[in-house]
Structures
1.
Amino acid sequence: MCGNVSVIVPTFNNSQTVKTTIQSVLMQKLDEPPDIIVVDDASTDNTVFLVESMGLKVTRNLQNLGLAASLNKGIRLSKSDFVVTLHGDTTPLNGDWLSQLTAPLVLGEADATCSLQHAPLCNGPTCSIWEKFLWGKLGPHHALNDKADGYQKETILKLGGFDEVRFRTAGEDEDMAFRLRLSMARIAPTRAEVRHDHRFDTKSKTRILEKILAKEYTFGRCGGALRRKFPTHRPGAYVYPSVKSPFSDGAFRVCLCIGALIPYLQLICIPGLVGVSLLGINSTKTNTRLGFRIILYPIFNIARFWSYTLGYLHGLVTGRQV
């Protein structure tokens, strides 16, 4: 199985992970080699060299265009009926990943499929306390966030591809997931497993914290832009196979943060903000063995929520992630 499938790998400064990602695709148990389309978004490290050293052709953007544009370019280059998106820092965990991910597509049972994702390992000696707070609470989960997803190419093309105008480097996933639902597309979780091996390009704990908060600001802009694009859509988290409740929507945290500044509403929103900041603390403590340092966990989360809120308001005004 898995003939007529293209694996699109968008890369940008993924030199620490891309070789493992590509090797895992090449090791898939298939009747014929997979069609791998690597689209590099003007990397400044040796990502391109590493991919080409493995005998693969790299399609290079002359300037940094963003993740959505790279995905769209890969889809246009594909001559297959089915496309799989795989980020350059995401690794399939077994040789049956591609077969398991695409089986519902090939059988005509789904229009889009997603992998079971595992968070980055966060117990290594090089992992900062902030990364442990960020990843430690996450268990295996399904998400249609283009890290390791499958699509009927015709379905993607009918929707006009990923929105590279409003969501340049993030947010294209939830926008696509929402538009798939509006089109009544069938979305299926699968047993295909991957690990998202995100790396920050610095060893400085202070810089890592800054990058995490900057990423939250970006995610906030995505949330605000999505609300601006679809002002009447029901709040919720749409990247999951089953839409999660409005309490999972970033707008809920935005309301808590803003409400914490308003007299009388503070009586509800400040305790609510503290309560939400504590979610996942037990699993984080178990998975990371941080000991007494776990007391910083809610402070870290509240800082993230405020970064997201500021970004959300920005995105709501501009209607764009960037």
Note: The radius of gyration is 20 Å.
2.
Amino acid sequence: MFKKETDKNYKVDSKSWEEIHVMPHIDDIKKSGVSLKKISVSVVVLIIVITAVAGIFFLLESKKFFRQNNNSNTGNIGLNTNTDKNINVGTNVNTDSNANLNANANTNINTNADLNNNANSNKEIKPPVLAGQLPPGKDFDNDGLTDMEEEVYDTSYSRKDTDGDGYGDKEEILNGYSPTLPDGTLNGSAVVADYSNSEFNYGILYPAKFIWTETSQKRLVIFDTRMGSSIAVMVRNNSLKLGPSEYFSALFPDKKDKFSLTKINNFDVIKDEDGLVYYLFSSDVPDSVYVIEYRPGSRNSLDYLVSFELMAKNFVLK
């Protein structure tokens, strides 16, 4: 059984009580000879030393910070570069380059590069070149046949008179003679062929190297040169049975004075102002007009004018 001891044997004397106090009394300090003033001065000095050390450390760190910041910036220069380019694509190209350089005494570099490329595709639209304004094709020997037509009729590029009979190649072709055989005729030779239209009862002589196609009603026939251009033959209605001048003026009111009137074989012929369209009128078929048209197509020159004239001169009704 637990038995609590009584404190009858627990006796504290004055000597034991004094040993319990471990912190000295002020009187004891005075007795020990330690000056309170000296302690205060030591504390103040210690505080000053700590403050000085902290200040020196702060200054050193600040210098290091500014040195690193200066290394990242090039020489206290503020550089603002604005480059505006406006490009107008047309006949004129205007390039405006504005460079603004502002020198600011600070440690920051501001680089603003504004590049505005405004490509305005405002190309000048030129009016189309009229077919009649195109130049004739190249003619090396100046015999009236272009170099391309020399190939069509198997004639010489370097001689005006291929067969040497005293007549030029162009002259012989347009008059129905062979330019390669002194006594030969053009019709029936290998360089030309005859097309016959049974629907509208006409025939026409054309270069054999051309390829023709016709519409389902045969009102339009295209003779393709195979070099980007063609010659078209079409039949138009003339229900009012107008004469050449009246018909052309009615068809082209703004060009009623811009044509020429001539005669080919038994046809009254109107040539337009470019000379590339022939309108053939026959008293035998007054309700129809036969049109022969040179179409340059993708060519930038007129390379088959002799062939065009040849076909017009050899158009016949059957």
Note: Helices lie at 14-20, 26-32, 36-72, 147-152, 169-174, 244-251, 305-313.
3.
Amino acid sequence: MTKNKISNFSFGILSVILLTIGLLTFIWYSPTEIKINNPDGKTVDIQNRYGLNIAVSIDTVDRSRGLAFMAHGFGGNKEDDNILSLAKIFNNHGYSTIRFDATNSTGQSEGDLAYANSITYRDDLFDIITWAKTQEWYQEPFYLCGYSLGAVASIAYAENHPTEVKGLVAISPVVAGQLYITDVYKRDIEDWEQVWLQLNKLYLYSQNHGDTHATRWLPLILDIMRFNLIQSADKLTMPVLIVVGQEDLLAPPEHQQKLLQAISGDAELIIIEHGDHFFESGEHLKDLIEKVENWLKIH
């Protein structure tokens, strides 16, 4: 065997071992009742099913045509440039937006990034929407717009409540853990070095936002290995826009293509030339905003 094949084989064995460990060690929270702590004003705190406070920003527009829920990615928050830019698109088109800091992230909500995973992100979004349904400004159907892990949560909600969702924008969603196992035998060492560089970018972002446990992303990777968005994608009957960077190695375009093919409704995949997993600023963010705005004009 060549050196690259041996290394890839070893990585495959390691991935299986880590997946097994993750399945044995994952801890489920005991849900509690959702509570509203501060129902007045445009920024509120609500308590999720796990008893943690979630900071929520409500950006209303006059004569609102509807709502759009915005969900940030792993280690991010509701003030990220990509989330603010996306929310502005919906605001400009007459939609009020709901942005929130997921728990166990870097924003104003409670929790520790060390315990972030797809389940906590998903449940936070579900709890935010459950709370929103009690508010006088609530409108249905609504849009969901998520980035990375926020896109995973958005897709999960849309799959479970398709009649409530007018349209879904999923940016760089991680599609299925098992696809990474398959990729082990397709990528060479140089590719995997780039994967680790993009993961390190997540680490550095979290460090810059003051999180002291940002190195504990291994449980997140184990968590990602458990889910598969493709399995229930046929329930996505609403219009869907998927956007991904051409050079995204954390949520590769070929994975997005598999998700696209499984969706039963009107779905479109846009690949941003030379983009990676992050749409933080510059031309890639500009391209993303343009594509989403063009899609929103006709959906």
Note: Confidence is low (pLDDT under 50) at residues 18-40, 207-215.
4.
Amino acid sequence: MADKLDKARIKEVQKLFRQTEKNIASVRNTKVQLQEDIKRVYSQVQNAAAMERLRAIPVDELAQEKNGIRIAILKNAGITNIAQLVGMNKSRLIAINGIGLDSASKIIRIVETLRLETVKHCHVKIDPEDRSKESSVLVLSVCALLMAEPAFAEADRLEREYGEMLRRSVELVEPMTSSFQWLFTRSGKKKDLTAVYMKMEDLVMLGVPEKAADLWRRLHSFLTEVTVEQAWEHFEKNAASYYAYIEQQGSSNAG
């Protein structure tokens, strides 16, 4: 029976399965990319807010621990607030006349501690009346995640139920596409491979490839067509959901 299978059809089903796997992966990878975009922009906005706060903290804060850091030397070098010291390495600090290696190490440690503590307490706020580039990216990304959640959930289901078979079966039935290989395949193996192929056809009949293609087509279309203005309108109607998601991603990023 296996010898009479249509090898051209088998190749067609293999191609269909490869595309199905790709479509499912594309949907799932899109979710990951959107989440990464949110984390990246959240971090940018949070760090910018932290720097604003650090600019308001005088450099005198370094002397709170009575650690021997000579504040007057830093002020003479034009450094008046903590933000100016963020990112400075030892080489730049010891280039300041009067700052030694030990003091430089202490400064870096204290400044980094202050920066991290400040970042931790900076929460990202989104104001529809003040639409910055960063906040618009956040709103657009969260809008896509919230509105496309059913598509992401369906892609996850398809991966759980059919992902392994999609990957394995394509390679397993490869001998069936070559008359020469099939000729030298033992009868028991032919029976097993034929069974695998028939399961592949069953999935085609169930419409799994069509579902995956439709998922990716609809998601791609939505991401292409949704505008920043539409995302902001959706935000204003669902602000609580947006803030919850953004804070969740931000906490994940901090962790």
Note: The first helix runs from residue 7 to 55.
